[in-house]
Amino acid sequence: MADLLILASRSPRRRELLQSVGLRFDIAAPDIDERVRRGEAPRAYVKRLARAKAMAVQAGPSTAVLAADTTVVVGGKILGKPRDRAEAARMLRALSGRAHHVYTGLAARRGEKILSQVERTQVWFKALTRAEIAWYVALPEPYDKAGGYAIQGTAGAFVVRIAGSYSNVVGLPLHAALELLAAVGHPLPWSAR
Known about the structure:
Elements: E1 4-7, H1 12-20, E2 26-27, H2 42-56, E3 63-74, E4 77-79, H3 85-95, E5 99-110, E6 113-125, H4 130-137, E7 159-163, H5 166-170, H6 174-183
Parallel strand pairs: 1-2, 1-3
Antiparallel strand pairs: 3-4, 3-5, 5-6, 6-7
C-alpha cells in the first residue's frame, strides 16, 4: 500500500508549494477555533494551532498528516486576516516602513508520532504612501492572508528585504515541512523506495 499524505489546510498557497516539490496528497481541512488565547505568545499560538489541526484529521496509521498555521507579528501584536478594507489598511499602516515577523507553526503526524516546530522569518516593508495602501486594499489579495498581504503577489512590491525562509512568508516553510515529514516516516519524492 502506498504511503498517503493529507494536507490539513485549505490554503491554495500551501497546496502549490507542496506540489512544486512533487508531493501528492489529499486535503482535509479541519475546522478548529483559531482565536488567540489571552497572553499567548506568537510562537506558542501557531504551534498550538498546527498541532490541533494535525490531530483533528482522521488518518490511518500509515497516513501522514501535515498541518500549518501562519501569523504576522508587528510590535508584539499578532495580525490575523483582515475582515474588511479598514482593518486591512490599519494592518498595512502598522507594517509600513518597519520590520515584522512571520511565524509558521508546523506539525507532522503519522500514527501516534507527532512532531512540531515553528519557523520565523523577518520581513521589512518600505514606507507606504496613503495612495499605495488605498490601492492595495481595493484588491482582493489582502483578505485571506495573515497580516493582510501576500508576498508572492502584488505586495511583493512593498518588501525591501527578508531574513529567513521566503516560503515561510508564503505560508509553508518547505525545508522544515519536508524535514518533519521525513522524520515521521513519510517518504519524500526523491527518497529511495
